Amino acid sequence: MFTAAALVPSPPLLIPELAGGAAAETDELRVASRGVAARLGALATRWTAIGVGRTECEIPATAAGTFRGYGADVRVALSPAASGPDPELPLAALIAGWLRAAAPTETVVDAIIVAEDTSPVYCAELGTRLRDRLEADPQPHGVLVIADGARTLTAKAPGSFDERAPEAQAELDRALDSGDAEYLAELDPVACLDIGIEGRAAWQVLAGLFGGEPSECRTYYRGAPYGVGYHVGMWLP
User: Fold this and answer.
1) Phi, psi of 216 (to 5 degrees)
2) How far apart, in whole angstroms, are the C-alpha atoms of residue 21 and residue 15?
3) Packing angle, helices 120-135 and 200-210, rounded to 10
4) Gene3D superfamilies recorded for this chain (predicted)?
5) pTM
6) Structural domain boundaries of the chain?
7) The pLDDT of residue 37 is above 80
8) Of 29, 45, 81, 166, which has the maximum CB count within 10 A?
9) Are 38 and 95 spatial neighbours (Cβ–Cβ below 8 Å)?
C-alpha cells in the first residue's frame, strides 16, 4: 500500500559534519528534511528512495555507505541489517540513509537511481510500475524523492547564473507546492539540462507514481541557498 511521498533535496550540506561554517545557514533546510523523513516514517517503515545519478541502478536495503568522499567519514545505512560501507554508493542513497535515522529504527530503504538523461516516457513508466508494486503489498510503503532544482540561480551558484533559471525554478516550485504532476511530466530534458535542473528525472518518476494530482500537498521548505533550488514537502495519494 502506497502511503505518501516525501520530497527532499540532495546537498551534502544537509549533513552538519560536511557543512562546516555553513551549518547554521542550512539549519532550516536540515530541520525540514529530517522532519519530513520523520513524518514519512510515521506512515511507513518501508521506503523506496528515488534519486538521480550518472547511471541507472537499484540499491538493496542491505547497503551502507559513507560521506568520506564529500569530506567526512559519516556512515549511514539503508536498514538496521546493512553490511559494511560501500565507498561508491550514490549521493542520493547516502542522503536516504542519513534521513532514515530520523525515522523509526526498523525503517528499511531500497533505492532506485535513474540516470540524469533518462527519457520522460521511461520515468513515467517507472513511476507507474512502482505504484503498482507498492499497492499490491498490504504493508505500508513510503517513497522518498531526492532531487534538486536549478543550480544556476545566482552568479555564485555551482552552475553560475542562467537568466532562464529564476522563472523555471518558480514554475517548478509552483508545481511541487500544488501537486501539478502534469507539469512535472512535461519538463523538457534538454532545457532542464541547460538550466541545471538535475532532479528532473526524479520529479518525472514522482509524476508517474501519482498519475494525477495528489489528494494533499504540504510544503515545509522552499529556498535557494547558494543559488540552488531546494524543496522539502510531502504528497499524499
Assistant:
1) -155, 140
2) 12
3) 50
4) LigB-like
5) 0.97
6) 2-236
7) yes
8) 29
9) no
